[in-house]
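Hi R.,

Here's the chain you asked about this morning:
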Amino acid sequence: MASSPAPKTHIAHTLLSRAHSPDSATQQFTERIKQKPLFLRATSPSASDNRSRRRLHRLRKKEYFLRHQKPQPLSAREKRKSGLYDLPKEECKYAIFKGLHDLWVGYMQEILDVKAGAHGHVSPASHGSKLVSADYHGAEVEVVRSGCAGRVGTKGIVVRDTKFTFVIVTEKDEMKTIPKEHTIFRFTVPVPAPSEGAQDQQTQSDAKAPKPLVFELHGNQFENRPVDRANKKFKWRNIDYI
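And the predicted structure, written out as tokens:
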């Protein structure tokens, strides 16, 4: 009986055995050639499939761009349309904003360094820049002089401070918009009451209680937004409309 022929050696194994040792050649042939997966290309897509693939790629690229894009701020028209600055009528009550006024009083006492029972000298040179850059949301203002005589005497708590107007809530729960131009506002910062021990000493010495601080605000020189006033330097200006 004829013997079976010897198995034929693969040409790649023969070439590897010339450059490497037998063990290394066998290992590389097994890993890189014999066990290497063979990827078959799928059937070529049709023209409609190519259009769908390109459209999907454009949509994904646009979605990625919009997701990583910085959102644009709303315009003034969009803010008015969305009602961002609208105040509900049922919430425009003087009693509701009275608590905001109490917080504002403490805020101003801290700015002006007003201590219990007494206060230091407050002058335009030393505290003018602080008053100009302060926030007046919650201040109780009164119109003492205006180009329109009908606005004189109007008093209320500021609920909105815009560039050219003060929106206030009066004690009758009425919302009123007061323009700053040619208008002088007056507001008061009370001095904190002294403690019990200091109050007894003050009563024994018959000393007079410190009067509250009264300021007048000229609207013509105050036509700035609160966010812009915070970094604006105080400058003296002539008052030619009084």
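The mean pLDDT is 81.

Let me know if you need anything else.
M.
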